[in-house]
Amino acid sequence: MTDNQENKTLPIIETDDLSIYYGTFRAVKDVDMKILPNKITAIIGPSGCGKSTVLRSFNRMNDFIPICHATGGITFHGYNIYGDDVDPVQVRQKIGMVFQKPNPFPKSIFDNVAWGLKINGMKGDLSGPVEEALRQAALWDEVKDHLKKSGLSLSGGQQQRLCIARALAVKPDIILMDEPCSALDPIATLKIEDLMRELSHDYTIIIVTHNMQQAARASDYTAFFTMDPDRAGVMVEYGETSHIFTNPRDKRTEDYITGRYG
């Protein structure tokens, strides 16, 4: 096995007995996951089971909530991202995020994509990296003649692809997506799903979704979360999407994906 092939089989993110607290309330408990590179992993489950909390722990977005803290471990390429010597800003450069509602800055399309490059110290002509990111986000052909227009002038689906381009511009390894299609119509949703599949050749994608059809269509692996009796989120089952949806091991998984609860 070559080094490159071996890297494809080693986890890019691994959690070890991960629990996340808001104050004294344990929102998520005892999560063990291994996220493989260049795959799309979906996190599904009913509202309030900690899906987004887990997703935001992967790039330390939860740090912005003063009462939130984590126990256990999260490693990225084998390094503990919560180590005392780790800069969370650098973590977020390598693990980008796209949010539920498209959130372009009130700037031009060009400046939206160039923003991350500039804050990371890139100077000079940024037209090449901006074009590359817009092409990767399947948006270039639609906006190439309108780069000075406001990003807010785009349609909802275009705005979300602009946000994806903004995340891609800084060359992350992983893209986290928190319900990226919940505010979009079905046509725009399918475009995002097609884009995710294309991007997975070069990036690892982790998506939180309430849409069972989306998880089944778009992901390679699926993690199902629910709440235990003390309202803490727990991961019930994790595996290849085809197995989760056709032959789940746990009755709770089967009940959820068949619509019996949730």
What report would you give on this structure?
This protein has 11 helices and 10 strands. The strands form 2 sheets. Strands 6-7-8-3-9-10 form a 6-stranded mixed beta sheet, with helices on both faces. Strands 2-1-4-5 form a 4-stranded antiparallel beta sheet, covered by helices on one side. The model has no long low-confidence stretch (mean pLDDT 93). It has 262 residues and is α/β, with parallel strands linked by helices. The longest helix is centred in the C-terminal third of the chain and has 14 residues, at 186-199. Helix 4 (109-119) runs parallel beside helix 7 (156-168), helix 5 packs across helix 7 (156-168) and helix 7 (156-168) packs parallel to helix 8. It has one domain (3-257): P-loop containing nucleotide triphosphate hydrolases (Rossmann fold).
